[in-house]
Amino acid sequence: MPRVGATARAAIPAAPPRARAKKTAAPQDRLSTRKLYFRRVKRSLKPGLWVLGAVSVLIVGGELVRSLPSIASAPAPAQVSAHHGGFGLAALGADVGLRISKIEVRGAQTVDPAALRAAIGVQPGEPALGFSLGAVQARVEQLGPVQSATVERVLPGTLIVNITERNAFAIWQTGGANGAPAQFVLIDKNGKVIAGQDAAAAKRREPSLLLLTGADAPQYAAALMSELKSVPALASRVTAAERVDGLRWNLILKDQTLVKLPVEGEKEAINQLGALQTSMQLLDRPVEVIDLRQAGKLVVRPYPAAAPASAKDSHT
């Protein structure tokens, strides 16, 4: 078989290169029915709904910030007065139903109801966002019987006021000398006067409240009460304590026995009296004065014996 030479091979024309097929452009996707629906809804939304959404965000955000423990003790912001788009936040909230419908007060046992309502200063029907929680709290805490208060706004229309009252520790009598009328006020454990409280009503509620007299009696009452509590047999009999010359105490028992405590060694004298009650029931005897002012000595003065009736008196 004859071989094809190089010349013959060159004469064979080469196949033309294949032309690259052009990619046809993908047909453009049409919007789905769902996307078209949401576009139409978005265009049809009224501007007022957007404003309402912004108000809701502000309300929820504000309440969340107030609930953070790290800033719970910080003063509440001033009354909301910001305006957006010409609408007051409080008025806009009221228009959508954010109005006070209920005011709950918790923990108020002795606070005057009229004074408390005036301090809260919010009435049902008012805009729920139209007042400052911090301002309400400050006014309530100005009331004498209130030790602390917290104020919560629960949307859409509830205001909750939680009150912790100052516990009455004793009754302090002032005046009563040189013709001045006697006045009775309640004091707390720190010796501070609890204003706006009826001492007589408090005594009826708590008969164990001690009556104190003396200019500096409130300052030393807590120490005396602590010492008396260590001797229950004596504490249960004490009804009043008189501060003498700013130096020491006289105790008045329920049977009118007068116990004179020393300037120094007050606690030791009280313990001594408790021991005497255990050993010989001294406090149960008809004794007018028990004098413990001298260390190591006890002076007891009984009631004077009744004078015997004369023969003349016996026949009348």
H-E string: HHHEEHEHHEEEEEHEHHEEEHEEH
The CATH architecture of the largest domain comes to 3-Layer(aba) Sandwich
Q: Mean pLDDT score, rounded?
A: 78
Number of strands: 14
Which CATH class of the largest domain applies here? Alpha Beta
What Rg is obtained from the alpha carbons, in whole angstroms? 43 Å
Oligomeric status: single chain
What level of helicity do the residues show? Answer: 25-40%
Strand sequence of the main sheet, in spatial order?
8-7-6-9-10-11-12-13-14
CATH superfamily of the largest domain: Cell division protein FtsQ/DivIB
Basic shape: elongated
Question: Termini distance?
Answer: 184 Å
Q: List unreliable stretches of 5+ residues.
A: 6-12, 63-87
Approximately what portion of the residues adopt beta-strand conformation?
15-25%
Number of helices: 11
Structural class: alpha/beta
As for the number of domains, it is 2
Largest sheet: 9 strands, mixed
Assign the CATH topology of the largest domain.
Rossmann fold
Please specify the SSE layout and strand pairing.
Layout: H1 6-11, H2 33-44, H3 47-67, E1 83-84, E2 87-88, H4 89-95, E3 102-106, H5 113-120, H6 133-141, E4 146-154, E5 158-165, E6 170-174, E7 183-187, E8 193-194, H7 199-205, E9 210-213, H8 217-229, H9 232-235, E10 238-244, E11 248-253, E12 258-260, H10 266-280, E13 287-291, E14 299-302, H11 311-315
